[in-house]
Amino acid sequence: MDPWYNILMSETIFLKIISGEIPCHKVYEDESVLAFLDIGPLSPGHTLIIPKEPAATLGELSDESSAAIGRVLPRICRAVKAVSGASDYNVLQNNGSLAHQAVFHVHFHVIPCFEGGEGLQMKWNSGTLDPARGADIAERLREELR
After folding, report:
1. Catalytic: which of 46, 105, 107, 109?
2. pLDDT at 2
3. What pLDDT was estimated at residue 10?
4. Which residue ranges in the chain fall short of pLDDT 50?
5. 50, 94, 115, 134: which could form a disulfide with 129 (CB 3.0–4.6 Å)?
């Protein structure tokens, strides 16, 4: 693990929000999860959901905190959709700088989408999966999961 990891985690804006050092527009809170409005929203109602457990990426988060987010995420999606009036929304979660993560504390974005372009704008650069390569990757993933 990077020796700067604990220092970086102790300094994230999200930990300062969790501690109350920085205010937020709180949407939901329980013992494991906090949800609040994004201060740089892509559309009205853009909400962030974070675990109170400090972890930079989803793969580093405990099963317990992951489950807590999983229990809350659908409810927050329904609330964001109802309050924003959006018919559609994105749930976005980035892991690492190459994946465009800017705050190194696990967080999920719930972003309402509207006709006319308000919301998340993205281009999906899909490729093709070679069957032999797919079989090899799937086998290696199954092995890793054992």
Report:
1. 107
2. 46
3. 54
4. 1-8
5. 134
Give the other-Cβ count within 10 Å of 119's Cβ: 22
Count of residues for the chain? Answer: 146
Domains, in order of start, for the chain? 5-145 (3.30.428.10)
**Pairwise CA distance, residues 74 & 76, whole Å:** 5
The upper half-sphere exposure of residue 31, i.e. CA atoms within 13 Å in the direction of its Cβ, equals: 2
Instruction: Find all residues with CB under 8 Å of 84, minimum gap 6, and list them.
Output: 43, 44, 45, 112
100 is annotated as an active-site residue = no
| Residue 81 tokens, joined | 């959709």
Tokens of 62: 């405990």
Q: What is the 3-state secondary structure (H, E, C) of the chain?
A: CCCCHHHHHHCCHHHHHHHCCCCCCEEEECCCEEEEECCCCCCCCCEEEEECCCCCCHHHCCHHHHHHHHHHHHHHHHHHHHHHCCCEEEEECCCCHHHCCCCCCCCEEEEEECCCCCCCCCCCCCCCCCHHHHHHHHHHHHHHHC
Rounded Cα distance, 133 and 109, in Å? 32
